[in-house]
Inverse folding.
């Protein structure tokens, strides 16, 4: 038995969650519903303009790993924070959830701080993310422990990391070590605009290394350049063994072995959409490592997503195992 | 018209909110339902033992002032944080709510950090508070701006501050400046054990300076040394012009001018009791400055308390003005 079921690699972030309306988004020139990268000056001015906020550990892959740990999976996370108060919060919350986390912190003297994402949640529950990467931008191959990568069934790579100058090499090192020991590679596309910035690199990795691709409708259309949803799904399915493509309230489309499943979403009152895709991936991957069939993986993913969008914050609060049991999945 | 209706002085804290059960409290030797002071070592070990947490600005008087600002009151806060990430969060959240906040931050080189309160919320919604004071302990007379104290209708003093070595002098300076300009003084007793540590100093201040005393059943009993609730209420009413004594789900007892009002609590599903007393005081004080009668002040206080205990965190999230209006109070 491998030590880990899933090791995630991504942007280590603390979310700063504030509520505002669409007028605020327009005035602040924030693109609704997506992630935009901001620098420290913008982070300072934007933070000054939002109302009272809550600080909750986030980071896309870190949310996924927190979900897997919450479910009792053997899991670890790799992503860089600074030795500062927000970095301590990030590390605590992951470890307290039961995930291993050993990435060396950037020293407290580093110029950049721990990354943070100013998440504006509008009354419709949609989230618009403004990401100051800080030290997490500098994750490098030195931060990849090849022994750890050889000890996991899956690595889970966050597409947002394609924006980091050294993280292509870090991903390559992790993939080589993981696959060399018989492990498999999952990738989440993360964001349509990040894909547009790095489409060729994404596609090379998908075709050459990825076994399981997580994405949503906007991302797969960006990846396969707007050939229509069904065409994009088919292209993805020809590139990787398993595709799991979420489509908001329309549920998830899964393709593998020439087969196709559509699993409906779980109707929920959306309070804060942050983390829906992350927790879908976490529950799906956990279910896969437990030997469940792909349709059940999708059902568990949808249930986990429905839990996380029912409250503020991108990590599970209710007992997901109990939720799966109450739906007859365990 | 004075610039401010209420200026609060208290412990500036960021709350670290985590859920745990009574067994955890017993194992960690945490006294349930009260505030206990802890040092940095204990803060570190306790934090390491709790699950994933949320960081939300807190501080008893700061919550009260945030409530007054939320209601549109003219208000300011005095309390010390450090120039660190948690200090920036505390300052942002108060200002973003509309309160003035100008206390000079302790320099980033200070040995102590911004104060934090590790709040363990049990399934019954009760909160058990573990307070690392950090730099907020060192609030001194130098931090009191006499011009500001002369420009406010009320000062609101947090009893917890009696634990600070220099804050008796800081309170005295604020009281002199405020009363000298025709202002009035409100005090919250904060905590039965804090009262036990400083009973004589509390009583001297109450008798000599306080116009409006906020407390709860346990606190007034500690203050007047267990003479029975009615006797304690009567003693308090002989010491100050107005007494507002909350009694959890039994509502609030108000005494003034030889009269007595009992205002029932608003039935609520308790998610997190943190801030109930703070928001009661905030809404009560705001209502008083708006010229409402004492019974209405009590009703608004109870409604505000019911809002804040219905969610995680000690500051209002729903529109309190709308809540008062829907109950026919505005």
């Amino acid at each position: 038995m491998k030590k880990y079921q899933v090791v995630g690699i991504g942007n280590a972030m603390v979310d700063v969650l504030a509520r505002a309306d669409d007028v605020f988004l327009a005035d602040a020139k924030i693109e609704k519903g997506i992630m935009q990268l901001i620098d420290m000056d913008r982070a300072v001015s934007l933070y000054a303009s939002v109302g009272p906020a809550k600080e909750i550990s986030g980071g896309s892959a870190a949310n996924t790993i927190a979900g897997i740990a919450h479910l009792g999976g053997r899991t670890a996370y790799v992503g860089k924070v600074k030795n500062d108060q927000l970095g301590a919060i990030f590390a605590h919350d992951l470890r307290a959830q039961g995930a291993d986390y050993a990435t060396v912190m950037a020293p407290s003297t580093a110029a950049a701080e721990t990354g943070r994402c100013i998440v504006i949640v509008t009354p419709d529950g949609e989230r618009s993310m403004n990401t100051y990467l800080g030290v997490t931008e500098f994750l490098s191959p030195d931060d990849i422990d090849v022994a750890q990568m050889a000890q996991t069934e899956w690595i889970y790579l966050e597409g947002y990391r394609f924006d980091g100058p050294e993280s292509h090499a870090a991903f390559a090192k992790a993939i080589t070590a993981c696959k060399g020991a018989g492990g498999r590679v999952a990738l989440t596309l993360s964001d349509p605009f990040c894909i547009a910035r790095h489409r060729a690199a994404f596609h090379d990795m998908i075709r050459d290394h990825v076994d399981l691709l997580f994405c949503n409708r906007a991302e797969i259309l960006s990846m396969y350049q707007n050939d229509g949803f069904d065409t994009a799904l088919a292209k993805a399915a020809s590139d990787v063994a398993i595709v799991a493509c979420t489509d908001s309230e329309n549920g998830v489309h899964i393709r593998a072995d020439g087969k196709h499943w559509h699993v409906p979403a779980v109707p929920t009152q959306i309070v804060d959409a942050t983390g829906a895709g992350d927790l879908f991936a976490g529950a799906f991957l956990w279910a896969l490592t437990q030997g469940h069939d792909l349709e059940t993986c999708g059902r568990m993913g949808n249930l986990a997503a429905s839990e996380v969008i029912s409250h503020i914050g991108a990590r599970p609060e209710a007992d997901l195992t109990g939720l799966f049991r109450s739906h007859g999945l365990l």
